[in-house]
Amino acid sequence: MRAQPASTRYVFAHYMVAWPRGGPDAGVEDYLAEFREAMARGIDGFALNCGGWSVSEPMYKMRVLQMYEAAERLGGAFKLFVSADGNAQNELPDIVRTTSGLKAQLKQGGKPVLSAYGLGGRDAARCESLMREANRLGAWFIPHFSPSSGEATIGEEQAAEIAARSTSADGYFFFGAGAPPDALARSTTLLSSTFRRIGKTFMTSVTPYYRGLSNGTNYRAFETDGFSGMAKEWQAAIESGANWVQIVTWNDWAESTYVAPIGSTSKAHVYNNRFGELLNHTAYLDASRYYIAWFKTGARPVIESDAFYYFYRLHPVDLRTDMARALVDPSAVPPRSLAPLTARVHVTALMTRRATLTVTCGANRAVFELVEGVNEVSMPSAPGRPHFEIVRNNAVVLQKTGEVAITQTDFSGAFNYFSGSSGSTGAQ
Hints:
Blueprint: E1 10-16, H1 28-40, E2 45-50, H2 59-72, E3 79-84, H3 92-99, E4 107-108, E5 111-116, H4 124-136, E6 140-143, H5 156-164, E7 171-173, H6 181-198, E8 201-206, E9 210-211, E10 220-222, H7 228-240, E11 244-247, E12 267-268, E13 278-279, H8 282-297, E14 307-312, H9 323-328, E15 336-337, E16 344-351, E17 355-361, E18 364-370, E19 373-380, E20 387-392, E21 395-401, E22 418-423
Parallel strand pairs: 1-2, 1-11, 2-3, 3-5, 5-6, 7-8, 8-11, 10-15
Antiparallel strand pairs: 4-5, 9-10, 12-13, 14-16, 14-22, 16-19, 17-18, 17-20, 20-21
């Protein structure tokens, strides 16, 4: 008999063990610092993405053991589980044997939780075989795998196929990042309903923004309109009754889906220079605190203090605006995108009461009347540093100037979003 759906609502983050923020030589203290930052936002643990393990790439096992050691120092407050990817799927027995007895290991029904990304690749028979293997090993298994048609958008046919193929698993993990937010939200709603009907745990995902590297084979992007897209995905997880959420990702520097603080309120090089100059994404994490609390408690949180979060690109987004530059500078060529990327300043404001927001950026100025609760507004960007001012009853409540200027010529931001915040819930 398979376990019943998980009763506790958890929020995890997908951690790329290949690329720790502390660099190739990251140690226990580095991981501990990341765990504490995640816990401060309400995250319960990390799913440790391992593309190898011991035989194929032994650094994975070494780093994972350091991470479990770091988590043990938190006295059970932060849980870990492995998400086997690629060659790590050939070593499930040693993964389960190594982690099952560790104090920080997440368990369900007394069994060690194990997950996977892209289980079995495109081979459905191997996927099923690996699920049965995890079952024999005594793991509580909640893998991600793709339907036969791929998974950019999950429709009813794909959801039914996924459910039918999950017989040997305890649940299903929907890793949704490479698609527009509306499509991801619809997929979450459909899959949540499907797995609730069959009585299995459904772990969905929310993602801040996706943009592959221009020097790779995955140079594409999906517009999220600042935090708005991530908020839609959070709402879908909440309203559909998903059991667990996994933020994808904590630290995928290659696809810009990271929410981890990068050690700077502006820009930083992290792990390897091939990722380019990374922009601060911490506002995605901080704005998510509201939704994390909502998801875990089932009740919309009361906003006790004002805060706002801003998101903007640092350069033009339309190739036609600088064709001559693009001919000599590959960084000026925009990624493939299903919808046009926006040249706008986006603001998510959490207000205790009504107030007025004024945004000034270069020659552009816009005034927005904010209501109590969550507000999403935007205005066209222009060269300069955006300035934000919130006024209530003729008094300035919050004000902030963006840390990094928007320019016409510096494409080092590589079509990524920059973010920042102001207010008591928006500490960097």
